Amino acid sequence: MHIKETFPELYNIRRPVRREEIRASLGDKTGREYWRSLEELADSGQFEDYLHAEFPRQAGEWDDEVGRRTFLKLMGASLALAGITSCSYQPPETVVPFVRQPGELVPGKPLFFATAMPMPGGAAGLLVRSNEGRPTHVEGNPDHPTSGTPERPAGQRVAATDVFSIASILSLYDPDRSETITNRGEIRPYTAFLGELRTKLDEMRGRQGAGLRFLTETVTSPTMAAQLRSILATFPAAKWHQYEPAGTNSASVGAQLAFGQPVNTIYRFDRADRVLSLDSDFLSSGAANLRYARDFAAKRRVLEGKTDMNRLYVVETTPTNTGAFADHRFSIKPSQLEMFARALAAALGAPGVSTDGAQYQNVAHAKHVFAIAKDLQAARGRSVVVAGEHQTPAIHALAHAMNQALGNVGQTVLYTDPVEAQPVDQVASLRELVGDIEAGRVEMLVIVGGNPVYNAPVDLALTKERLDKIRTPDGKDGLRIHLSLYDDETSELCHWHIPETHFLEAWGDTRAHDGTVSIVQPLIAPLYKGRSVYEFLAAFTDKPEQSGYDIVRDYWRTQRLESLVAAAGATQPAQGTAQPLASGAGSGGGNNNTHGEGAATGGNNAAGNAPSATPSPTPSATPTPAQQQQQQGAATARTAAAPANFDEAWRGVVHDGVVPGTAAKEKSVTVR
Predict the structure, then answer these.
(1) N or C terminus: which one in the chain shows less Cβ crowding within 10 Å?
(2) d(CA 499, CA 533)
(3) pTM to 2 decimals?
């Protein structure tokens, strides 16, 4: 298409200038004249339109007396003056070197500290790398039963970690974390919170705490559980509720349905020749996924003289990493999974399951049910049936029944006491709390962690209208308190919001999937004005200002930690691990510890946290796996003798990252 048809305006402007027009325009002119183009010389109407289109409107009529040069001078002077006023004199600062540099601190060489990341079904043992006092990377702890291989000799242990643990570094430095304590939207000091809380508690003490409710997530910390029980002993009429939207609640309720009591299930995939997964992604999710993935891979690995491999059946509703490894994978609708599990349980002769084959004729993958059952029965005592954590309690109960029918209990499936401090049906617990709120029986609601306003079930939603029903007996507004890492939807509906410290900023303890306790030690001082859950709960006791370090340490002193270590050492062979560092050894931060917690600050004095008057011991550095291998021949082996005192035992468990002798004992249960 010709330009004349597509852009007629451009064609009229750029059309060829005719010589006749130019001669006609110059015919009556005399003297010199200057022009920039033939179009200007022609002085046509099209050229005038072109000028107005190219330059701003009325630019040709601008006759301001201030010229362009003067305008640029004035603007340049204005910018220069603005830059001068923005500068201010900074007082001189002196960089103070170490008076006595820690011997283990070498600039540029990282240190590693043993700690653990709390999770709903059990903690992950970690070795956190610290560069000049700041955590920068997370690895697995070779001595931890979940992330490591403590059953191997020292120097031959390996460890792994998952994406959640590695990403915890990002949450530590997350700029969206809550930074300040707020009361009804206004920033307030912690002492103001303590004052109002003490006044409310004194009013409720005469009623034995009637109207006081605690709502927590799943608690696996022995110290936190002891604090809550102590508070409930002081206020007998108070109640402790638990709710977590994603966790092990269905598995716990399923065990209650199958055995009449809650139990913790541990699978030994290193002994299993046949594995059936009922929508369980056990290789990449869950509290014990690192241990299970290692055990499963060891049984699948073909070595010289070992040619047999395990076989994996996966029946799943959504594609998972475990399904990608399956030898036989079957996709199924979520609504069909329970019927499939019942048909398979009936084929295996599981107790309490109807064997009427007519009701299973229309089950999904019916032609494969008997083939799977036959293969599982061929490996009696050497098979595993595992259900996904998010599946219904009925499917978990069916999985327990199938494992019992296959003779797997005590072989590839072990049962222990629950890892949770108080195993309850969390949905029923939340329903009870909502019922008390609706009935006007709640006067103070203390939400410890989580965001239940956002993730509670719709029929149990903690809406503003419902929370406004929390009132005192005389009709006044009650008190709602929220401890959280973020200022979220729940914080918005609470009167007090207390920032929570990250697990890399605070002392604590937690249990692994098999019940083994790990001491959580900080890698850095709190970056913001946060409080750990232990310090927060201490506000409800007669020691509101007690530090988290003292709370955890005092709890384990009452548990006679030295006796636990001695008993574990008497039943285990000596291991060639390095001796724990002495009290005061740390990451080489060089600053006094803040908040009374002994955190290695690495030169970082957190805003708002004055140095402690009596510095607590700093974290104990742990050798990396490579360093352990180098030290295997030269390190002094741990002896089985009892520690000299509590302090020695404490330094040992902090250094190693685990408390020996705390794993849950195997128990015998039978499907009803």
Answers:
(1) N
(2) 10
(3) 0.77
What CA–CA distances, in Å, run from 147 to 137, 158, 280? 15, 9, 19
Instruction: Tell me the C-alpha distance between 480 and 478, whole Å.
Output: 7
Mean pLDDT of 514-535: 94
What pLDDT, on a 0 to 100 scale, did the predictor assign at position 478?
94
Return the structure tokens found at 200.
């409310």
Region of residue 285 (phi > 0: left; psi between -120 and 50: alpha; otherwise: beta): beta
Secondary structure of 588-647 in HEC code, one letter for each residue: CCCCCCECCCCCCCCCCCCCCCCECCCCCCCCCECCCHHHHHHHCCCCCCCCCCCCCCHH
Residue 92 has, within 13 A of its CA and on its CB side, a CA count of: 2
Which residues, other chains included, contact 508 with Cβ-Cβ below 8 Å and sequence gap of 6+? 118, 221, 223, 224, 519, 520, 532, 533, 534, 548, 552
pLDDT in tens, 525-581: 999 989 999 999 999 999 999 999 999 999 999 999 988 888 877 555 444 333 333
> In the numeric block, which tokens belong to residue 672?
């009803």
Give CA–CA dist 645/652, Å, rounded.
11
Spatial neighbors of 658 by CB under 8 A, at least 6 apart, are 114, 125, 141, 143, 144, 145, 150, 516, 517, 518
And the tokens for 262? 């809650």
Instruction: Categorise residue 410: left if φ over 0, alpha if ψ from -120 to 50, beta otherwise.
Output: left
**Beta-bridge mates of residue 182:** 187, 497
Rounded average pLDDT over 406-430: 95
Q: Sign of the CA dihedral 254, 258, 263, 266? A: negative
Nearest to 41 by CA among 33, 50, 30: 33
Average pLDDT in the 403-432 region?
95
Distances 445 to 29, 236, 365, 455, 664 between C-alpha atoms, Å: 96, 16, 49, 17, 33
d(CA 533, CA 483): 8
The rounded distance, in Å, linking the Cα atoms of 158 and 242 is: 35
Give 632's pLDDT tier (boundaries 50, 70, 90). very low
Report which of 99, 122, 95 is spatially closest to residue 509, judged by C-alpha positions.
122
Could you list the beta-strand ranges (E) of 64-184: 111-117, 124-131, 134-140, 182-183
- Alpha helices by DSSP H, 222-365: 222-234, 249-259, 289-300, 321-324, 334-348
What percent of the chain lies above the pLDDT cut of 90? 64
Largest CA distance in the chain: 122
CA torsion 548→551→554→556, rounded to 10°? -80
Q: Assess contact for 403 and 345: CB atoms under 8 A.
A: no
The DSSP symbol for 161 reads -
Spell out the residues 6+ positions from residue 289 whose beta carbon is closer than 8 angstroms to its own: 162, 281, 282, 283
Measured CA to CA, the distance from residue 536 to residue 533 in angstroms comes to 5
Q: CA 360, 363, 368 angle in degrees (round to 5)?
A: 100
